[in-house]
Amino acid sequence: MGIKRQLMDIYRRLYAAFGSRNWWPADSAEEVIFGAILTQNISWKNVEQALATLKAEGTLSFKAVAGMGEQRLAELIRPARFLNQKARGLKVFAGYFGERYGFSIKRMMKQDMGVLRDELLNLYLIGPETADSILLYALEKPVFVIDVYTKRIFSRHGFLEMEDSYDAYQRFFMGNLLPDVKLYNEYHALLVHAGNQFCKPKPNCTPCPLNNLRKSST
DNA sequence: GGCCAGGACACCA
DNA sequence: TGGTGTCATGGC
């Protein structure tokens, strides 16, 4: 079986096991971006607390963030860890979003995907994974998001090495899947769900729906 | 009570 | 370019 078919086979197994994940968990595109920045290297449970606080304070918008002090913002997002870094990251994004797109997600969505990705990667605290999460889940652009679970799952099943670069993983997926926002959305969400449940750093994959799966030679 | 979570960046050689 | 330290919370 070729790589393309294997990738779709894995997708179907995950979907059959877990169903639609309905990602990203947020009420708005802006909330997706808050979450994408806040979730860096931290569990989603912590992010939820920070988002709830921002929401309760009426500051879950980049217009609000642009108008508030970095110190106060840091206090509001404390549960999300690395609070000073992330407060600065949110402020920087708010400045960019306001100046370049007038705080309009609609206007941003009209921009070319490659241009957007370069712009995002030039912002403080937005690396490849955060940029691609924003592109896919907030702006509905067909980019495949790579995260630690994706790497773990596909390295343990013999497709790539854990040490391979973000770009190498992304080329692997995007070179073998059609550019489909819905597919990329669901696939990555399923990988995170599977990873959360079964693919811990110390392998313990007994009930995993991908058990016994190995890369077959093409 | 230790481990680790849906990363990114700075600094050094 | 790669290797390593820093950031500094909360759940399990």
Structure description:
With 218 residues, the protein is mainly alpha-helical. Helix content is 60%, strand content 0%. The longest helix is centred in the middle third of the chain and has 19 residues, at 83-101. The model has no long low-confidence stretch (mean pLDDT 93). The structure holds a DNA duplex (13 and 12 nucleotides).
Helical residue percent band: 55-70%
Roughly how many Å apart are the termini? 6 Å
* Shape, principal axes of CA atoms: globular
Please count the helical segments. 12
Major sheet attributes? none
Q: Tally of extended strands?
A: 0
What series of H and E elements makes up the topology? HHHHHHHHHHHH
Instruction: Note the beta-strand portion.
Output: under 5%
| CATH architecture level-2 label of the largest domain | Orthogonal Bundle
- CATH fold-level topology of the largest domain: Endonuclease III, domain 1
Q: What CATH first level of the largest domain would be assigned? A: Mainly Alpha
How much is the radius of gyration in Å?
A: 18 Å
Q: Superfamily at the CATH H level of the largest domain?
A: Hypothetical protein, domain 2
Q: Classify the secondary structure makeup into a structural class.
A: mainly alpha
How many structural domains in the coordinates? 2
Name the poorly predicted regions: none
Summarize model confidence as the mean pLDDT. 93
